[in-house]
Write a structure and sequence with these properties.
By secondary structure, the protein is α/β, with parallel strands linked by helices. Helix content is about 40%, strand content about 15%. The chain has a single domain, classed as NAD(P)-binding Rossmann-like Domain (Rossmann fold, 3-Layer(aba) Sandwich), CATH 3.40.50.720. The protein has a seven-stranded parallel beta sheet, with helices on both faces. Helix 1 packs across helix 7, helix 3 packs across helix 4 and helix 4 runs parallel beside helix 5. It is globular.
Length: about 250
């Protein structure tokens, strides 16, 4: 079996379900030792660890709330202490809160938490990880088609968080390039991800806006992430890889 990531250490944020869990499984199958974070469900996180180890891989779960930016350095320290280094960072953890900007009943507390999780929390993890990533390391940030085109009402805040981390990742590509570290974005599409789905009418409209006219599977998006983590992508940096069924086509 081809294991191009043998000897590498990866960290996947938000790895206990959906796309995160699919990414943990795939990176481990390709030979990496994988750390991942979770917030609330230790049972679900340990189930992913057990699945990976049952197939001969190695994984470990750390409880870490990305909305608390102060916890990022300790998280990276824990990963390095456990595995001895860090080569691959996958910024996957995110939450989704929708609502129009003029909604008088908007849950601003939930919106603020989303901005903290999806934007400021990602920045904090990138900053902390960038100081210890080994030469030829990889940063892969999971965004969304809404990061480049909103398309529907009610997603201004969510779209802004995704657009922001895309630009930050591009900046990281410039800053870290001299060390041989690449930084890229995967724009993920609609899938069974474990996040709160939109209402049925919005979901129908979103699926209807896709070239492929269907939701994706987490394994399909995880494959794009694994490519960018692999030696095959050694000359790809500052790029946005669309894996959203043709949302922007």
């Amino acid at each position: 079996m081809n294991k191009p990531l043998t000897g590498k250490v990866a960290l996947v944020t938000g790895g206990s379900r959906g796309l995160g869990a699919a990414t943990v499984r795939l990176l481990a199958e390709q030979g990496a030792d994988v750390a991942f974070t979770y917030v609330s469900s230790e049972e679900r996180a340990q189930a992913v660890v057990g699945e990976v180890r049952g197939k001969g891989g190695e994984a470990v779960a750390f409880r870490s709330d990305q909305a608390d930016m102060s916890g990022a350095p300790a998280l990276i320290d824990d990963v390095v202490s456990h595995f001895g280094g860090l080569d691959i960072l996958v910024n996957n953890a995110a939450i989704s809160v929708s609502g129009t900007v003029d909604d008088p009943e908007a849950d601003t507390t939930a919106l603020d938490r989303m901005h903290a999780t999806n934007y400021l929390g990602v920045i904090a993890v990138i900053r902390a990880a960038s100081r210890v990533l080994r030469a030829d390391g990889r940063i892969i940030t999971v965004s969304s088609g809404l990061g480049s085109r909103v398309g529907l009402p009610g997603f201004a805040d969510y779209s802004a968080t995704k657009s922001g981390i895309e630009r930050y990742t591009m900046g990281a590509a410039r800053d870290l390039g001299p060390r041989g570290i690449t930084a890229n974005v995967v724009e993920a599409g609609l899938m069974e991800s474990g996040m709160q789905p939109p209402d049925p009418e919005t979901l129908k409209a979103l699926v209807g806006s896709l070239s492929l006219q269907r939701m994706g599977h987490p394994d399909e998006i995880a494959a794009a992430i694994a490519f960018l983590a692999s030696p095959a992508a050694s000359y790809v940096t500052g790029a946005v890889l669309d894996a959203h069924g043709g949302y922007n086509a």
